[in-house]
Amino acid sequence: MGTVFSLDVRGGEPTAVHAALDEAVAGLRRVDEVFSTYREGSQISRLARGELTVDACAPEVAEVLELAAEAERVSDGWFSTSYQGRLDPTGIVKGWAVERAARRVAAAGASGVSVNGGGDVQLLGAPEAGRPWRVGVSDPLRPGGLAAVVSAAGAAELAVATSGSAERGAHIVDPRTGRSAVTDLVAVTVVAPRLTWADCWATAAFAMGSREGLRWLESLDGVEGLLVTAGDEVRCTGGLAGWLG
User: What's the pTM value of the predicted model, to 2 decimals?
Assistant: First the structure.
């Protein structure tokens, strides 16, 4: 998927947890093989060219496309799996894959799991009793600095996802035009229970721009956001302060 993944796992019976870790890593590699749009022979590339049907693909393809359709519905089309008229579900795949990897390890008995895929993080449980997971949110306008620190205190599961132009340039597409989204934002960070959705909502809110993006994030249950504009203005949803610390 063109990024670095890291897994921090605490507790559990070592043999079972190590086996689950191996399965999780293998699963991430498998996701890249199936969903990579850069691999001509991947199932998603062949599906986009009409060489395969969804039924002929791995079951995960149908699962991801169903989730993507739900994201498109909830975002009123601001999240889309279409890029220049071609099927491209990469906007949802990474978050879904990271969340799936984290849950696979937690199911093996780990008491705390943190999986980071290119800066988007799924947290489950806690690293130790009385100490929550904490995630630093990079400041998009000050390299090396932090815009905020998110604490998972009190949450059995929490995800943090950021979309923006600071590190990768103008890569987020406005689905209305099919071209790079031109907004007043440089980054959107979303905090939600599941990374599958946090990743989608950050992308959609960025494409909307700060005013509409903030209004929309406020309308979603269990979702908070931090939006940074090119003018160095920080806008937050009303409940975000409860997750900072």
Answer: 0.93
Tokens 């799996």 locate to 81
Is residue 21 within a helix (H) or strand (E), and if so which, with residue range? helix 14-35
Average pLDDT, the chain: 93
> 140 with 166: CB under 8 angstroms?
yes
166 falls in which pLDDT band (50, 70, 90)? low
Q: Interhelix angle for 59-74 vs 90-107, to 10°?
A: 120
> In angstroms, rounded to a whole number, what is the distance separating the alpha carbons of residues 4 and 29?
12
What per-residue confidence (pLDDT) applies to 179? 63
Instruction: Give the helix ranges, DSSP H, for 36-179.
Output: 43-48, 59-74, 90-107
Q: What's the length of the chain?
A: 245
Q: Whole-angstrom Cα distance, residue 37 to residue 47?
A: 10
Q: Percentage of residues in the chain with pLDDT exceeding 70?
A: 92
Exposure string for 156-191, b = 16+ CB within 10 A, e = fewer: ebbbbbbbbbeeeeeebbbbeeeeebebebbbbbbb
Taking the C-alpha atoms of residue 43 and residue 23, their distance in angstroms, rounded to an integer, is 21
Beta bridge partners of 236: 226
Give 93's Cβ-side CA count (13 Å radius): 23
pLDDT at 89 over 80: yes
The candidate with the shortest Cα–Cα distance to 205, out of 159, 241, 163, is 163
